[in-house]
Amino acid sequence: APAVAYPSYVAVLRRLRRGLDVDDATVRARIARWRWRHNLGLALYSCGVVAYLATLAATQTAAPLFFDCCADSNQSRAALSIWYASKLWEWLDTAFLVLADKPVSRLHYRHHQTTCAACALTSNIGGGTPGPTPIVDVATFLNAFAHTLMYGYYAAPALFKPFRRWITRIQIIQHATVVSWIFRAFYRRCTGSNFYGYVGELALYGMYLVEFLVFYAKDTKSATARSTSEVAASTKKKDH
Known about the structure:
Blueprint (H helix, E strand, L loop, with lengths): L1 H17 L6 H34 L18 H13 L2 H8 L6 H18 L12 H20 L1 H4 L3 H24 L7 H45 L1
Helix pairs in contact: 1-4, 1-5, 2-6, 3-5, 5-9, 6-8, 8-9
């Protein structure tokens, strides 16, 4: 349902944007304050998830975070439900982009449109049997770790500036790891998922991996071009 609702959500945001005077200093300041609160809240939540999963792993003799992909997850149903809800919370990223009259990239759009589905597949949020899939702890932990840095950077750019270039790299590592975990769990025939569940997870996390690799390649190319341009401009200035 969220994947179907997201396009309508974006359309409504764009309609609201047309009726909002974002050139007004008071409006811009108000949006900036709410965006900061949003980013800080998600950074703190993500950090809490990392601590929660690390604590769970430390109390398990065989845990997914200790490279046993078939070990059962001890995450509570409430924790998994909150993780799912956090993917809807992240839709506010799109709202702040649209309200600031900034473009919504293909990576951003596809990612936010489908993360609820990915979360539902890995955690079996509807309950019943089977339970959470074998990759749920690894997927949640790596996602939370990456988001701690990403939203931390958005909330406090100066503090997290040293990690800026590493954020996308960590996200690529995250998705590559999850994809490899899916193959490993399927090969070992772990309980907790079925063939169609693995196919769905692989399709989504595989798409994320490709999208982030393309984004990283373009970003690196742009950064190199800017650096070359700056060097050329500096050299020309010295010659004069």
